[in-house]
Structures are given as structure tokens and as C-alpha cells.
Design goal:
By secondary structure, the chain is α+β, with helices and mostly antiparallel strands. The protein is built from five helices and seven strands. The protein has one domain. A hairpin with a 7-residue loop joins β6 and β7. The relative contact order is 0.16.
Length: about 130
């Protein structure tokens, strides 16, 4: 066990099993797991922060049966402050809920601009010119 991993483990608190959520982010058409199962608010913060700083536009939280890991250093309510940037998708079943970044907020941070390709930038310009 290294010093970094032991310091990281001290900031994690394990809570009850009944309310844990896993975050999945859509990358190139497939959902990719992001982080460990955590509480609902932390899952929303983690997914919204990732989607806001990367070209991905969709994330979902899925109810998990594992014990949630709560990072006490990650309390910042990012999702609550940026609630107007996201819209909630239809709830297909009771276990998962999707959130999508609104079109006007898609490419607004440095990380998103770096992650988009030249072809994507040209396509966005054409779309903006012709109002498609």
C-alpha cells in the first residue's frame, strides 16, 4: 500500500447498501463506467462534471447493489449549480435515469473544445450558418 492510496482511502467513507448509484458516460455510442458506486448526489456531481468538461453529452446513473463509497472531499454540488445546463431524460425503468447536456451548452469549456475533432468543428460551423 503506497502513501497516496492510503491517503485516498482515508477520505472515503462507506455508507449503507440501499442507496448507491453507478455513473455511466456515453463515449462513441457506448456507455462506459465512471468511478465507484456512490451516493445519488455524488453520482450526479461526478457525471455532470465529467460531461461538462469533455465532449460527451450524455450520462446516466444506475442503481447499484454494491455499498456506496462517499468521498468527503468531493462535496461541491456541481450538479445543483449547473442544473440549467442539463435536461433529464425519460426514466425507462426505476433503476436508471439519463441526463443530457443541452445543445447550447455542449461546447463551452476548454476540455470540450480540445476533445472535438476538426471535422466536428467544421460541421458545427456549417450547421450554425444554415441554421439546421
Amino acid at each position: 500500500m503506497t502513501l497516496v492510496s492510503s491517503m485516498r482511502d482515508k477520505n472515503l467513507i462507506r455508507t449503507g447498501r440501499n442507496n448507491s448509484f453507478q455513473v455511466y458516460v456515453k463515449k462513441k455510442g457506448k456507455y462506459v463506467k465512471l468511478g465507484k458506486p456512490t451516493t445519488r448526489n455524488n453520482a450526479l456531481d461526478l457525471g455532470s462534471r465529467y460531461v461538462d468538461s469533455n465532449p460527451s453529452a450524455v450520462f446516466k446513473i444506475v442503481k447499484s447493489n454494491e455499498r456506496p463509497v462517499f468521498n468527503k472531499n468531493a462535496i461541491d454540488d456541481f450538479f445543483a449549480f449547473n442544473l440549467n445546463k442539463f435536461r433529464a431524460g425519460r426514466i425507462m425503468n426505476k433503476r436508471e435515469q439519463k441526463f443530457t447536456e443541452k445543445e447550447i451548452y455542449r461546447i463551452d469549456t476548454k476540455g470540450e473544445k480540445e476533445g472535438i475533432s476538426i471535422k466536428g468543428i467544421q460541421k458545427r460551423r456549417v450547421k450554425k450558418i444554415f441554421d439546421l
